[in-house]
User: What shape does this take?
Amino acid sequence: MVNEQKIEKPVLKDDVCFMQTQDYNNQEDWNWVDSNTNTVKPDIDRPANYYEASLSPWTGFPELQHDLECDIVVIGGGLLGVSTALHLSESNVDTILLEKNRIGSAASGRNGGQLTPGLARWEAESIIENFSYDEACRLWRFTSVESMDLIKSIGERYALELDMHRGHLTAAIHPGHLSALTQGADARKHLGDESVSILGPYEIKEHVKSDLYSGGALDAIGGQVHPLALARGMAYGFIKNGGSIYENAEVLHIDETPKGVLVRTAQGTVLAKKGVILAVHHATFKLLSDINSTIPFYSYVGVTHPIEGGHKSLLPSLYPIYDTQLQIDYFRPVRKERILFGGQGTGMRWNQEKVNEYLTGRLKAVFSHRDDIKFDFVWSGTTDLTLNGAVDCRKIGETTPIYAVHGWSGHGIAQTVRIGKAIRDDILKNNDDFEMLTSIEHRSILLGRQLSPLAIPLAKSLLSIGNIITPGKMISF
Ligand SMILES: Cc1cc2nc3c(=O)[nH]c(=O)nc-3n(C[C@H](O)[C@H](O)[C@H](O)COP(=O)(O)OP(=O)(O)OC[C@H]3O[C@@H](n4cnc5c(N)ncnc54)[C@H](O)[C@@H]3O)c2cc1C
Assistant: This one.
């Protein structure tokens, strides 16, 4: 591969710079800055979200305006796409990445930054139920320690600043949930993972200054990361290794031809001679119309202004936290004493005011002794769920392989990165890790996308009724 494109390494700022987004073409997910609490001019009509605002301005990539050929085309510049492209480039495979908008402009640059093990909604118990013991041990390692270690090693290989820290806490919202957390820890132990300790109602207060929680599970493998720094950092590595990225390059069709897969955008085509990776998350159905195994949903994140007293006054051990309620709250410390707080899953996208009101209400419920905390940033993002809760990994194609991965259910930062490596390994026939993932069966969801505005609230209402009847049973959406 010959490198002609230039790239700056992403640099994290000490704090944010309120600015216009460079994510110029995203018509769906929105960003919002509260002009009452931030210090900048209210003339930002398209604000950057927190992650973008906390990184140095970053060079974009050209649009695709020619017809090109290469061995592998990666479609989608989220964590999955850039990880696959990075790993291919490390093995000297001639690779082009095409991104509809900007690198990391979708879920990968908008998520909660929480690193948790598992395969979307499948934790150790589901993996044990669905695999032989040896395969379950292998899959658990893949989705836990290997995924986290891979991010760390990429950070080291390319000297990236990722704000990655180990240690993750799940906080029980009801005393009954402690037994489910204990069973989860036991399932992990059964698979050879001893990294979870169960905390009682007093111990948890050493980690989170809230009266809401009855205890929790502290996991030494999980943690937190700046996801957009990770996505941009992997794109940096890919370009340094000689890869090429085209942005604002939406792929409209893929056609199998005798010479390979022809990938078409409005202004140019790329012939992929050896394979194509669809790393487009919930949009897979647009390019492979017979794959209908996911329902999209929308979720929301905000970042507060700097907290008076510092974040240790609320999160003394600085661990990121998930809670166990049906509609989870999750939060973590980010630079300059700010707290990142997220939650909700809706079938129709909420507007900014509604989300600000919702997240502010949840933050007050968690830290009821503080009424001075406000959001500087609030934004939305899109993800998708499968019926069985695991991520859907496919390999299809008559002569040239086409890989597709989707159905993350609001999880998957670490695992997208690990699956990118597994796809590279499958292409090079290094191992059968990706085959292990494709062995999980998924069912089509008839009219899933169309019915999402009804199906998501209906599913949540049914689960809420279950929750009222048996409040100690842990169900999360
Ligand atoms: C609000 C929110 C919070 C979340 N919080 C967490 C969390 O705390 N922890 C966690 O582990 N996970 C979390 N997730 C999930 C996590 O972000 C995703 O699993 C992960 O980012 C998926 O990466 P991806 O590369 O598959 O998809 P994406 O990041 O969605 O990337 C897909 C890319 O494909 C591009 N694309 C789409 N169609 C085309 C096309 N036709 N041509 C070219 N490009 C195309 C898109 O523009 C996009 O950039 C969250 C998700 C959301 C939405």
About this structure: Residues 448-469 form the longest helix (22 residues). The mean pLDDT is 92. Residues 75-81, 98-101, 105-108, 110-114, 116, 250-251, 279-281, 283, 299, 301, 342, 381-383, 408, 410-413, 416 surround flavin-adenine dinucleotide (CB under 6 Å).
